[in-house]
Specification:
Elements: H1 2-24, E1 26-36, E2 39-40, E3 46-48, E4 54-71, E5 76-86, E6 94-100, E7 102-111, E8 138-139, E9 143-154, E10 163-170, E11 176-186, E12 191-198, H2 199-203, E13 219-220, H3 226-237, E14 240-241
Parallel strand pairs: 1-12, 10-13
Antiparallel strand pairs: 1-2, 1-6, 3-4, 4-5, 4-7, 4-9, 7-11, 8-9, 9-10, 12-14
């Protein structure tokens, strides 16, 4: 009788362990990579745009928010509320979440911060919270900057390009939604999804049909040049792919 009870305990323990493993699932990781057309993108490297001009970017950082996986039944599974991606820091290009499982049809996210979050005070947060002021993504007048891209361009590939590029994109009018479709499943094995940002598409987007002419539209601090802000926000949100 005692032996039988021991077997029952062992059997139940095994069921609980299996149930726990199934519930815990695996780790999902979202990894951001950048490219420039067909080339791998790196800061402080020079690339040629479709008009034959040379472009070299020193800064590229931005917010993605409301990052969710889309299940096959249409429901959403949260990956992160807010994440900041800074290409000057290779450790700041991924987000991971444990205990994920299921069948999915894609991923959705917003470029920038929603109107409520955009009213946050960075003094209320500290690193690693992405809203902390340490990330230098906050304007005292216009709230958070959603995307920051800075660099230079020139008609000749010289050691120092001479013409500035500066886009600090923010305000609620620059908030955009993005969805990328891909069927995949997560069960017992960890899963990494690589999302690519094509920097060339920020300036010349084949989906929106909008072009930012770096000769005449080389800068926008959002409210000082709203037409460029709108084009940048549109193009940026359509520059991602799987």
């Amino acid at each position: 009788m005692r032996i039988q009870n021991i077997y029952i305990v062992v059997f139940l323990s095994g069921l609980l362990a299996l149930s726990s493993c199934k519930k815990n699932g695996a780790t999902f990781s979202l990894q951001l990579k950048a490219k420039y057309g067909t080339q791998n993108f790196r800061l402080n490297s020079t690339y040629t745009d479709p008009a034959g001009r040379y472009v070299n970017l020193a800064t590229l950082k931005f917010y993605l928010s409301h990052i969710n996986l889309i299940k096959s039944n249409g429901s959403l599974v949260k990956v992160a509320d807010i994440a900041i991606f800074d290409f000057s820091d290779t450790t700041a290009l991924s987000v991971s979440v444990p205990n994920m499982d299921g069948t999915f049809t894609g991923i959705s996210f917003a470029c920038g911060l929603d109107s409520v979050t955009n009213t946050s005070d960075p003094l209320n947060y500290s690193v690693p919270n992405p809203l902390a002021g340490d990330y230098n993504m906050y304007w005292s007048m216009l709230k958070y900057q959603f995307e920051v891209l800075e660099g230079k361009w020139d008609t000749q590939d010289t050691a120092f390009l001479h013409n500035p590029l500066a886009y600090h994109i923010g305000t609620n009018a620059a908030y955009r939604q993005t969805q990328l479709n891909k069927s995949f499943s997560i069960s017992s094995s960890n899963y990494t999804m690589v999302v690519y940002l094509d920097v060339e598409q920020i300036f010349n987007n084949t989906t929106t049909g909008e072009t930012i002419n770096i000769v005449t539209e080389f800068s926008s601090m959002s409210t000082d040049n709203q037409p460029v802000m709108v084009k940048f926000a549109d193009n940026f949100s359509k520059a991602f792919s799987l």
